[in-house]
Amino acid sequence: MNPSSTFAERATTLGELFASHPVIRAVNFHNTSRAQAERYDRQLAQYSRSFSSVNQEELEEYLTTGKWNKPKPGLIVSVFEGYRNSFEVLTPLIEKYGFIGWYWVITGFINASIPDQRTFAEHHDIDMLTHEYADGRYALTWDELRQLDKRHVIACHTRSHTLLSQLEPEVQRQEVVGSQEDFRKNLGHPVRAFVSLTGPAYGENSATDSLIDAAGYDFVFSNFRIQRIRAKNSNPSSK
Amino acid sequence: MMNRRGALVAMAAATFGAVPSSAALVRLLQSGQAQTQGAASGNPTKDPVKDAIDERLRQDLARLAPRANSEEGVPVLLACEDLVVDKPSQKSTVTLTAFNAALASDFRKTSEAWQRIHPDAADTDVAKLIEVLAVRDFANGGTEQKQ
Q1: Does residue A84 lie in a domain region?
Q2: A179 Cβ partners below 8 Å, 6+ apart?
Q3: Residue in B with minimal Cα distance to A82
Q4: Which residue in A has a C-alpha nearest to residue B80's C-alpha?
Q5: Upper half-sphere CA count for residue B73 (Cβ side, 13 Å)
Q6: How large is the ipTM?
Q7: Which residues of chain A are within 8 Å of residue B15 when distances are taken between CB atoms?
Q8: B101 and A19 in contact by Cβ < 8 A?
Q9: Dihedral, CA of residue B13, residue A78, residue A164 and residue A194, to nearest 10
Q10: Do B100 and A21 touch (CB under 8 A)?
Q11: What is the pLDDT of residues A218-239, one digit of tens each?
């Protein structure tokens, strides 16, 4: 198969996916340095004129029915990795413009000791273009996550930000199930949404799927889709 | 076997967790400039509609190329699948809207343009194609494809 036909096939498949399923907009943030704060302010201000917030219940309704019940289309504001500056720089702006942040947290980053956080980031594909904290703390704390949890969505981005398909079964279990245990321990409840590095979808790897089921996630986010894999009330341990 | 970094580069265009590389867009843009003899180069395809679509895509790629995506908010579009009911034995009752039809049409036209500009496009370039469509949609305040 030549590369061109591969692109064509992929494009055809995704075109059919977008044509046959409800589509929702999202914006992905990673390292939100203070130096870029004015840019984020302008960006979210612009979005707030056209889009509205999305919480988990609204997403579930949309996934189930395809109906969106707010005047403006929904926008999922995704904030990845668990950077400290997502709390200090981006969150005030998210709240200023009435959005709900979806914080995709790498629990190993949060659990790393402060002196180890930059090293952890460098070894786990967590971008660190900007080094803005002299005290060395670059990750959120669990206290900050508990604050965010009151108003926003906390979600799982594995423990170590590694490609699951390359891991031995027990290590993969730690990434998928162990990270959920981290949330239970520190937030007091499991989280409902999961995404792994590079975002493979549910259904692409049966071993990973089994672990996602075991951990009790309701939603799997991936590169081009959001999948609802279980009804909330079928998971008695859900928040 | 592809190493870990190679796998990331190959798989992670506009993806979750792995920050998309604008270097990939630069590569695409340079490739397009080198390979394509389209409207911008004064040698159109004899179809003004296609030429206009190609030129718009080139301009969008040029605009996106210098972005530092690890420190910017990157728009994406996500299809919503309900696997709880999307089973052969159960008929889905999900409502589709004009947004779906408009997006599908734009997706088809732009993917065709992409292949004209980049005949050797890799399948992973589809992620960048979606990012282009999302950026257009967001820039128009969601009016390009109504939900």
Answers
A1: yes
A2: A107, A108, A156, A157, A158, A159, A215
A3: B17
A4: A226
A5: 29
A6: 0.93
A7: 198-199, 223
A8: yes
A9: -140
A10: yes
A11: 999 998 999 999 987 665 444 4
Instruction: List, for residues A72-99, the tens digit of each pLDDT value.
Output: 999 999 999 999 999 999 999 999 999 9
Place of tokens 């952890």: A120
Question: By the CB < 8 Å criterion, does A123 face chain B?
Answer: no
Is A163 within 8 Å of B4 when comparing Cβ atoms? yes
Q: Do A66 and B94 touch (CB under 8 A)?
A: yes
Number of domains making up chain A: 1
Q: Which residues pair with A102 in a beta bridge?
A: A78, A153
CB A18 within 8 A of CB B108: no
Q: Length of chain A in residues, anyone?
A: 239
Overall pTM > 0.90: no
Residue B70: CA atoms inside 13 Å, Cβ hemisphere, count? 13
Rg (CA), chain A: 18
Contacts of A197 in chain B (CB under 8 A): 8, 12, 16-18
